Structure formats: structure tokens, C-alpha cells
């Protein structure tokens, strides 16, 4: 029987989509036997949030702290393009998400509120990994009518491959110089007190 080779971008997204079809999953994982995540710096109950919501049990990972941000181009539906390095100058929170990822969607209102909470100290960008591009992302954003977020897209899924976690949502904090501080792998309650503590040193 001939073997059909699937190109890497489709492996990445198709695998995540399949896993996200499972009800009540806490993050969108591209494989069932995901590698164990590096030990986080948080306490033993780091996977629990103040709300106790099982959707928000992401892992805080500091194993790549100090790493330079990948300088890929992201785009808006109107054709605007920027490199991540264009955002240097103040701390940057980069969230990878998709419209079909349940935990991602639950996070978005909280990320929108967070983006408006520290406009002078922190830039928050959400970067879609949807294969449908603007045709999928633009109407979804229009329906939600977020006050502070923009519908950035990653056309070639460069960021997803660079971070190499195989999971959505995926959120990375960079300092003003573009150096990684930490990454949150999986869903997180961005409205809680834990978030304030996680951001404090970087945005102070």
C-alpha cells in the first residue's frame, strides 16, 4: 500500500484539530503521547487556577528563559505585516490560538482585558494558527468585538513550529529586549492573581 506523506504544516494543525475534538480537554494537543513538559517554577499546584476550572490547567515552563524571540512575520487581514522584533521596546505577551480550540476561545476575553489593563507596560498579541486564514479569523473577531486585541495570523505556522510544543493555547512572555521570560503551555486564567504575580517582575 503506498504511503501518503503529509507536509509538516498539515501534520501540525491536523493533529491538534483531531485532539481538540475530544470533549472537556484542557488544551489542544497534537498527539496523544505528548512528551512530559519541563518542570515549572511555580508551586506544586501550578496546574490549578483560582477558579478551579479544568480548562485552565496550563504548565508554566521556564526552561527556555533568556532565549531570543523568533523573528517571524505575522499579518493582519488588511495586509499589514510585522516581525515580532517590531514589538520590542516593552514586554510582549504572544498567544497562539485557533478558533476551533476550546480553551483558546475561553482565554480570549481575559487576554483582551489584560491587554487593556497595562497599555503602557505590556503589549498582548494573539496569533491565529487557523488554516483558513483571514476568511476564518476576521469574521470570528468581528463577532467577538474585542476592545484591545487584533486578529494577527501566522500564515505558515512558523511560530507553532518554532515553539515546538504541539499544543494550543501556547503563550510566551518576552521582556522589552525580546528575551523569553516564561511560557504557558495550555490554558490559563489570565484574570487571576497568579497572572499578576507572573508578570510583576517583567512589567514593573
Can you walk me through this structure?
The chain is of the alpha+beta class. The chain has one domain: Glutaredoxin (3-Layer(aba) Sandwich). It contains five helices and ten strands. It has helices at 8-20, 102-117, 134-144, 158-163, 193-203, and strands spanning 28-29, 59-61, 73-75, 81-83, 92-97, 123-128, 151-153, 167-168, 170-174, 180-185. It has a six-stranded mixed beta sheet. The radius of gyration is 16 Å and the shape is globular. It starts with 7 loop residues before the first helix and ends with a helix. The relative contact order is 0.22.
Instruction: Work out the number of β strands.
Output: 10
Structural class: alpha+beta
Strand line-up in the sheet with most strands = 2-10-9-5-6-7
> Regarding CATH, which class?
Alpha Beta
Number of helices: 5
What distinguishing features does this structure have?
204 residues, Glutaredoxin, two-stranded antiparallel sheet, 5 helices, disordered N terminus
Provide a brief overview of the structure:
With 204 residues, the protein is α+β, with helices and mostly antiparallel strands. It has helices spanning 8-20, 102-117, 134-144, 158-163, 193-203, and strands at 28-29, 59-61, 73-75, 81-83, 92-97, 123-128, 151-153, 167-168, 170-174, 180-185.
